[in-house]
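Async update (no meeting this week)

Hi team, since we skipped the sync, here's where things stand on the single-chain job. The sequence we agreed to prioritize is pasted below, unchanged from the tracker. I ran it this morning and attached the output directly underneath so nobody has to dig for it. Comments welcome in thread, and please keep replies under the output.
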Amino acid sequence: MSTADTRVAPAILRTATGREAARWVAAHSREVPWLTAATVLTTVAGAAFQVLPVLLLGRVVDGVVGGEPQSILITIGTLLVAAALLGSAAAAASTYLTGRLGADLLARLREGAVQAVLGMPSARIEQVGRGDVLSRVGDDVAVVSKGIRTAVPTVFSAGVLVVIATVGMFGLDWRLGLAGAGALPAYALALRWYLPRSAPLYQKQREAQADRAQALISGLNGIDTVRAYRLEDAFREQVTRESWRVRDLGVEVFRFFGRFVGRENRAEFIGLVLIIVVGYVLLEADAVTLGEASVAPLLFHRLFTPLGAIMFTFDEAQKSGASLTRLVGVLGEATEERLVGRVAVAPADAGPYPVTVEGLTFGYPDSEQPVLRDVNLVIPAGGSLALVGATGAGKTTLAALIAGIGTPQAGSVRVGSTDLAGLDEAGVRALVSILTQETHVFSGPLADDLRLAAPEATDAELMDALRTAGAETWVAALPDGLNTMVGEGGERLDGTKVAQIALARLVLGRSPVVVLDESTAEAGSQGAAELERAVSAVCLGRTTLFVAHRLTQAMAADRIAVLDAGRVVEHGTHEELVALGGRYARLWRAWQEGS
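Output:
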């Protein structure tokens, strides 16, 4: 008997550290080296051309004081014009390349995050709540997108300009450079005060927005229940409470940022005073020229604009950073899921596989007793097994575990010789497909809906799958055939047709093992009869597990397992169990009397 990891997953999706997010950005920047290098070079060039006119101004002052010929002014004026033109061109190129690099990184991040969420086990998504999931792939992506368009280019170019201007001050005279650097401790203290306090605050703000989204989604998804029980006021109060929490955190963030700006202004004042005093002392001692002494304050003053830009976009940058860590955290969580075990899957077209359930025990984190206890079952390759039992017996839980959704606390589920606990989500789906009564039809052409299961399928293959599912006649009668719009805003489909589309997807998926959890429960009696015939055709030659809603379906299975309180209490064919006179026999008599 193998024992699985019993660690309980956190109640929200993972959030990466700042270092992890930085490593992700650096790794993906290295994948486009020419674009990254061009972005850095044009930004440095643009900053240098912005500093050059200030240095040339000092040369003008020295030229006037030294009585140099007028031609020097013409030369310097020409250089000023050239620097302005080249600086504008470099700044424009830097802005374009930064935006392009940012858009490329955002596209990779968005696609990776969505792919990671789609690849997560359904149980994990239900555990963390759809509000957290949607806020990450929706709100967080939007925040990062806005930051890439505004804050990131501003902070990057301004930061480079600060470095170039500081180097220019040291180039004039090392003492003038040190005087300007005297402001650095004040800047450092301001940042040291601000950064450790602001990051958790922004994180709380993003989490509050996720909670607000969850409250909205819960109310909208259950709107019929809310109206039926007159719970509108309760849900309105919940949404209002979460909205006020978001607002209060927003006010706190703004107030906190204002205090940070005050500390930054103090640092600027300290640096400007130091550089003016030192410049005057050096000028009196003839250690620097008048031009150098006058340029140094101008260079330091030149820092005010980029530093101010950094400060006033720091709020947006912090928001983007918080959202980036949440998105990279999703990627990291998906990586952890993939690394739980090996990814070794036999080809789906290699024929049917037996399913072996051995010593399986499973319980939910908040339940005192296990839902399933020491369950042992075998479904022969290409055979079928029906699960029967009263509500709460554990049928759906067992079906989900056999479908690879969730991890047992003890025991194993094997398809052939492969333990599902050692596979990632994609590996499990290649071996096992599950179909429940909660079937969704996506908005768009019917062909696109079907190709979700087989993207490369031809129209002929789609029609073959629909024919197997018993849907060929009504699909052929649609106004545009396979191109007919279905789902929201499209052709109205009843429960039987929706189930047939799901069965057609099952055919196209071609997994060797199929789990059907009351997949015909929502159809009427006539529709159920049609669907049961379609299910038999779809599952022909595939290893199949049924959660039987109707005992006629159980009777058609090769064998039947009766669950009670999480244990298999009876197991055999329909005839054997009826002759046994136990629980199944009583269920069968009750079914016949009620039919």
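Quick observations from my side:
The radius of gyration is 34 Å.
The CA atoms of residues 46 and 88 lie 7 Å apart.
Reply here if anything looks off.
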